[in-house]
Each structure stands twice: as structure tokens, then as C-alpha cells.
User: What shape does this take?
Amino acid sequence: MRTATLLFSTAIAIAYGAPTTSFEDLKPIEAEVAKGFGKLMADEAAKFDKPQIKIEADADKANGAHIPDTIGVLIVPQKDLKESEELAAKFKADRGAPLAFLFLYRVAPVVNNATVDKSKLRPVKLADEQGKEHTVHTLLLSVRQVADDDYRLYAYGYNDKPIVDAKFSERTASGTNPVVVEVKDVDHDKRQGKLVVSVFGKYQATFTIGHMPD
Assistant: This one.
């Protein structure tokens, strides 16, 4: 398997004065790379103690975007995710229906105009071929129906209260996977962008992410 340095390795740009990271440079992660790392990280995330929701991940449908060796986002959907009456019923549960693991490398949600502190996010450790550990942070995603026409994306870190509570809207989205992640509307000066989660190619929820140095 390819080592962690290909996707989520240590970024030294800031420490050594290299050019500032730009979200505009994000590129889709190759399918096979996404699958490989999706399985690796989902297997580790499945070991989390007392998760708010139980996610059984399907690494074959993992997808994301990255700047190799710098920043990245990778989503691994819930297994056998499809529209059904059974799923619709789960939307009404207190914490919603399991949607996906969202893995973040050197980025995090922006809440109240500040990037969320890494201490609020669950970490996954990866080792590169030299044996050095690197940390990728994880959000557990769910969908909850709070009213007849009001569906929310919840993103959980360590706490019972979701870090992100974003409303879904109906919009046509690209991609064939049940859940797709993209970064759009980049603000270069703020080093932020809009992370867009698309479900079934027709529902989207968006929240702001910002650069998070090691």
C-alpha cells in the first residue's frame, strides 16, 4: 500500500517559509488512492470510544481533494447508503442517520469566525515509511430531519453537540458516489473555503473550513 506521505504527510511550508497554502490548488484524489486511505483511516475510526453515531464505512466509495503533502479532505460514506423508507425513518433519530466519516488534514471547520481547535476533533494516526506518525482529524457525519422540509448535516467531534449544523438544500451535484465532498468558493486571503457535502447527487450542505497548522 502507498504510504501516508502521498496523501497526508507532514506539511512544513509555514515552518520553513515556503509559499502559503492555497485552497485553489486542491485537486481530486485519485480513486485508488482514496480507496486505500479510506479503508486505512476508516478502520482506525471504527475503534473510536463512544462515538455519537455508528458508521460502517464503504471505502470503495471514498473520495476527496488534496494538495499532496500539504492539506486534504477525504469522505468515506456509510455502507449500503441509498434512499429508502428505512433511511428516512433514521433521519428522525436524535443524532440522525449515519452518513460518513470525514477526514481532514490540516483543515478544520470554522465556527464563530475561528477555526475549531484540534482538541475538539477525533484524531487518527498514520505512520509513513520512515515510521513517523502523522495526525488526520475526523468528523462523524449524520443527517437529521428536524422538520418536514428541514434536513441538517451534523458533524461530530468529541462532544455530544455537533460542531457543524448545516442545512441541506436541493441542488444538482456531480459524481456518482452516494456522498461526495468538494471545496468551493475559496477565499485566498483568509485561507478558507466552503466544504460542500453532496448526498445522492441532489442534496447539498455547506460549511466553512480553514487552514489549521500542525
Observations:
- Residues 1-20 have pLDDT under 50 and may be disordered.
